[in-house]
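User: I'm putting together a small comparison set for a docking exercise, and I want a reference complex before I start. The sequence is below, and the ligand is heme C. Could you produce the 3D structure with the ligand included, as structure tokens?
Assistant: Of course. I'll restate your input first, then give the structure tokens for the complex.
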Amino acid sequence: MCSWLLALVTLAAHDPSAERGYQLLVSQAYAPGQFPRTVIDNAWKRWGLSERPPDYWGAFRSRYGLPESPFPNNGLPMGLRSSPMPIGGAGACLDCLTCHGGSLMGRPIIGLGNTSLDLQAIFEELSGRFVDKVKPPYTMCNTRGTNEAGATSVFLAGFRDKDLNVAIAWRNLGLDDSMCEDVPAWWLLKRKRWMYATGEADSRSVRSIMQFMMHPLNGPGRFEKEESHFADIREFILSIKPPVFPGKIDPTKAEAGKLLFDANCLRCHGGPGAESPYPGKIIDLGTIGTDRTRHAGISGEFGEFYNSSWFSREIPLGTNQQLKARKTAGYQAPPLDGIWATAPYLHNGSVPTIWHLMRSKERPKRFTRSFSTDSDAYDWGKLGWKTREVEASATRDAPPIERRKVYDTSLKGRGNGGHEFGDHLSDSEVSQLIEYLKTF
Ligand code: HEC
Ligand code: HEC
């Protein structure tokens, strides 16, 4: 029997556990150290300061956009995980929570996308001396709060053959590092039959969410070994519930909003909660009209690699079908559970509030925000983050870390057009709809 069939048999015998998945998620490192601990502990030296700031870790967290860790994490913020450096010495690597651990009202939330993160600054400032000399092969973050997760998969897959052996030469499987991806909330996965912005991967797939393990030092054996752990992690993801809106809700207004939602939105998005069917519709690019870069950005070449590789050789219990990725015609209308908590909106995070999503003509074109997630950074009326418009000239000569704080919708991957389904509603109707969405 070939080895992957054997692996299927082992996995079938594994009964995934959410509790185990949580423990693994908050304790295991799935990559060797990427950032030496000495560099992490002394990063202030790279910030142009003459002495260590009194609240060093507070300053560290706000510079990189990492929340305080809600679990014991060896003194590190959530999103960095202790892991020895390959050449020896203490270090840390990224983990799932770098992108999937956000914060709200200043409190860390596992499973909320991190929309304050500046992954580029983390790589540039924490990698240490060796990497200082080498230009990163691709951009990790073009604009703060978004990241190039898709490019990371395509880049790392370029070093692998279909059995995940590490190849010597890198192949370009159509790398595009300008997709500016907004991280979806994990509590939505349980409602989806297909996942990712385009609905291209089967949501039952355990292997698909192991793509981040493709660090060149992780050989094929490591993937086999960790698969049951990732089945546990997936089970934990399925157990996460959306946070409940912490403000006041006017029940009469919300009731009026429900009628509007049912008439205008329900057919694509479905309603909140497990009791309400989720249609999982893919809306073609012409109809949705949102930025096309993400849709084009995961290439056919990468799809072919994926569908011929270990990642797609997974057969869920009770079926005889491999979990192949598919090409879709557009973007999936996501479920809206906990939608008030997941600003900014659209797959590229180009729209700061739900109000702006409903008012396509009034969306800001070039804007910044504090990247704090405290209550006073939240726009309680429009549901989302408070923003400030900025002139192009204001940041032209600013250092890259400041420029990444500006979301410029004229740049590639960052278009904020499309989704005009709220434009015909009156101001009071939009406000009723928003009241209803607070209950999701
Ligand atoms: C560099 C940031 C980053 C890291 C690290 C990361 N993810 Fe993600 N993840 C994303 C982004 C961005 C998406 C959305 C991709 C898309 O739709 O194109 C995503 C999508 C997902 C989804 C699908 C959600 C949905 O509803 O469609 C799952 C599940 C997931 N990630 C799990 C994981 C796990 C498990 C890990 C750790 C092994 C991980 N991710 C690490 C950025 C990241
Ligand atoms: C024709 C189908 C369709 C209709 C009708 C529709 N939407 Fe959407 N909606 C989508 C799609 C597709 C997306 C994802 C687009 C993207 O990210 O590029 C989306 C995205 C969203 C998002 C952002 C989700 C996120 O996590 O970023 C919200 C909020 C939303 N819609 C609310 C509404 C509301 C409220 C209505 C009714 C006024 C509505 N939609 C009507 C298809 C639709």
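The longest strand covers residues 91-94. The pocket of heme C (ligand 2) is lined by residues 197, 264-265, 268-269, 283, 287-288, 290, 331, 333-334, 336, 339, 342, 345-347, 354, 357, 419, 421-422, 433 (CB under 6 Å).
User: Thanks, that's exactly what I needed.
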